[in-house]
Design brief:
By secondary structure, the chain is an all-beta fold. The chain has no helices and eleven strands.
């Protein structure tokens, strides 16, 4: 089972692997952390906090347009058999900003932002985006 989360709060998505149970008489580590240590790529991480919608923003759909390419992320409570962070990650590739960031909340409210720079943000329904300090 794989869970994607920003384990070390550096703005990059890491992977946590939960291995299946070993056969009798066999042992190995039950969990492996794969830290994302790349420094040559930029990303935007968005946490959602609902008001009219649910508190964790589950069901919020975010669309980032980056140099004409659209990336769509939905905040979900689970990803298959695992519960991950209720967060949207957008890798910027060779770009330095998200040209247009559109948000559709489960309540039906929509918001739009332009020129979103790399970093970590808290999106509050109807109240905009606040940059979060890096750890």
């Amino acid at each position: 089972v794989v869970a994607a989360a920003d384990y070390d709060s550096d703005g990059k998505q890491d992977l946590l692997l939960r291995h299946c149970d070993p056969a009798p008489g066999v042992s190995y580590v039950p969990v492996t952390l794969l830290r994302n240590t790349r420094t040559d790529r930029l990303a935007v991480t968005v946490f959602a906090e609902g008001d009219a919608s649910n508190r964790n923003g589950i069901g919020t759909v975010m669309t980032a347009t980056i140099k004409g390419h659209r990336l769509v992320r939905e905040i979900q409570a689970t990803a298959g058999a695992v519960q991950g962070e209720p967060t949207a990650y957008f890798g910027l590739g060779e770009s330095s900003v998200i040209d247009k960031h559109e948000v559709r909340w489960p309540s039906g409210k929509t918001e739009s932002f332009e020129n979103v720079k790399p970093g970590k943000f808290l999106m509050r329904e109807g109240k905009g985006m606040t940059e979060l300090a890096a750890r």
